[in-house]
Structure formats: C-alpha cells, structure tokens
Write a structure and sequence with these properties.
It contains 6 helices and no strands. The protein is mainly alpha-helical.
C-alpha cells in the first residue's frame, strides 16, 4: 500500500475558508439588530432569533415557526442571516467586533438576568 503525507498547503486547499460576509448579509444583520433593540411587536421575535446565535445555551433557542409571525421583510432578513451563519460558521463578534456591543445591548433588553 502506497501512502503519502498531505502537506499543510494541500490540506488548506481542500478546506478553503468561507468568503467574508457580503454587504447584503451584513445589512440584513444590522437591520435585525436595530429591530431587536427597539420596542415593536416583532422585536422580541427578532431578539430571540439573534440571541439563539449569540448563545443558545444561555439565551434560549429559536422556534422556526416564529418566522410565521414576522413581516415578510424581517423574515427575508432572518433567512439571509441564517444562511450567513451556516456559511461562515462564526459567532457575530467574530464577523465584526462591533457586533459584541450590539448583542450585549440586546441581551440587556431581552435577557436582563443574563446581562453583565
């Protein structure tokens, strides 16, 4: 049997890092953050969605049927951000450190018992 060792470069070529977030994905995320930080009828639903990404273990999960109760534009942004999450495999603060403060503000608003 002939075996050969794969080089680091070959291994990295097999698993390239995902492309960075697109402007459309980041804009959808920013819109959802603003909704989650506001006081509308849909803010809690959006906050629950975002916080499930931030820390599902502490902040709770997200019931996908909640999508049925938000406006179409918000649902579209949620779908875009869901795709972003799946594609990049990172937490929001790893996409942009500025998101850390934004998500902490959402935690203070919707999960005050967890706020630092």
């Amino acid at each position: 049997m002939n075996t050969r060792t794969i080089t680091r470069d070959e291994l990295q070529a097999m698993f390239p890092p995902p492309a960075p977030p697109t402007d459309a994905e980041l804009n959808a995320l920013r819109r959802l953050i603003q909704i989650a930080k506001s006081d509308t009828g849909q803010s809690r639903r959006v906050a629950d969605f975002l916080l499930a990404w931030w820390n599902a273990g502490s902040c709770g999960s997200f019931d996908l049927t909640t999508l049925w109760g938000v406006d179409r534009a918000i649902a579209d942004d949620m779908v875009t951000v869901f795709g972003l999450i799946a594609r990049v495999g990172e937490y929001p603060n790893r996409l942009d450190p500025a998101f850390d403060a934004e998500f902490r503000a959402i935690v203070r608003e919707w999960r005050p018992e967890l706020a630092e």
